[in-house]
Design a protein that fits this description.
Elements: E1 5-18, E2 21-34, E3 38-42, H1 49-55, E4 66-74, E5 77-78, H2 84-88, E6 95-98, H3 112-122, H4 129-138, H5 144-148, H6 157-169, E7 175-179, H7 187-204, E8 207-212, H8 215-221, E9 224-229, E10 232-238, H9 239-244, H10 249-262, E11 306-307, E12 313-314, H11 317-323
Helix pairs in contact: 4-6
Length: about 325
């Protein structure tokens, strides 16, 4: 394993109960996170991005998720094979998870300061009121002394998001996984939250996985992006290369939609059709039904993920032909 690799996911496949059978929603995800880098995991709803990210800390088990195969290596240790005691020593301490809805991550009946104090204590950190208030100030919260004694319902969505980020930073984790970190807050606050995450990365060297459906988020924050669709990675590369020269038809279509909106076109471009649900998955290219470049051979099994150049990867039969 490369010494710079902090996290490596290999051929991850995850299923959930469906009727009397299992429904596979993640069908073979491979990705790496290097120390200090910010990687974006981009995809539409149902693409498998959240399930893949929660699997890192085995949070999917709460809803009966089952790993069919694969490895999740953190510093060379397979997290999937650790005991509950061992994984608890990593959860929140070395790898922190920031959920989509910050208010749902906080106990509405306990004061903010108390919750932060308990979070630190859980991971063996003896925190003082002053340390917690400084951490709150560091994430851009005004009047930390006042907020320390407040309840979550007394705060705005943006303030709650900063509290959750402060909680994640208390243990100085090496990796933060942020699931749609700007999804539950006002548009006016989104850039502030993204700027805060970038500052954390710069100041502390904290690696990050940013789960999102928004190209603007990955463009602002990430150095590398992975595009998911139908439980599979369709494309991977540096953010500049993927935005300037997308290789997969799905990525090109997404960017066409984004550019249509940003350029103020009188008629907005729309990608026709809808993503396949897991119960519609077949042994063919998952983008086949919506792809304008499809051909008969696209139905002959799921295309291979091929590496082209400089860590550029794509899962498309047209890319396969380029490396033959």
């Amino acid at each position: 394993m490369d010494q710079n690799q902090l996290l490596q996911i290999k051929d991850l496949r995850i299923s959930f109960p469906y009727s009397k059978e299992k429904l596979q929603v993640v069908r073979g995800v491979d990705l790496t996170v290097k120390q200090g880098e910010i990687i974006g995991i981009l995809g539409e709803s149902g693409s498998g991005k959240t399930v893949s990210s929660t699997a890192v800390l085995r949070l999917f088990q709460e809803v009966e998720g089952v790993v069919d195969s694969g490895e999740i290596l953190y510093k060379g240790r397979d997290l999937l094979h650790l005991s509950e005691k061992e994984i608890n020593q990593i959860r929140g301490k070395e790898i922190a998870y920031i959920f989509q809805d910050p208010t749902a991550s906080l106990n509405p009946y306990r004061r903010i300061g108390k919750q932060l104090m308990e979070a630190g204590k859980t991971h063996g950190h003896k925190l003082t009121k002053e340390i917690i208030q400084k951490q709150m100030a560091d994430v851009g919260l005004d009047q930390p002394k006042l907020i320390y004694n407040m309840y979550p319902f007394q705060l705005s969505g943006g303030q709650c998001q900063r509290i959750v980020i402060a909680m994640a930073l208390l243990t100085q984790p090496e990796l933060i996984i942020a699931d749609e970190p700007t999804n539950a807050i006002d548009a006016s606050l989104r850039k502030k939250i993204l700027s805060l995450l970038k500052k954390i990365n710069t100041d502390h060297g904290t690696a990050m996985m940013i789960i999102t459906h928004d190209f603007d988020v990955v463009k602002f924050l990430c150095s590398r992006v992975v595009v998911l669709y139908g439980g599979l990675i369709m494309e991977e590369g540096s953010i500049e290369e993927v935005l300037e020269k997308p290789m997969h038809p799905y990525t090109r279509e997404l960017l066409h939609c984004v550019n249509s909106l940003q350029d103020g076109e009188s008629t907005l471009y729309c990608l026709e059709g809808k993503p396949p649900s897991p119960y519609e998955f077949e042994d063919l290219c998952p983008f086949y039904d919506r792809c304008k470049e499809r051909e008969a051979s696209c139905r002959e099994g799921i295309p291979l993920m091929v590496e082209l150049e400089r860590r550029r990867k794509s899962r498309c039969i047209h890319c396969e032909r380029k490396v033959i």
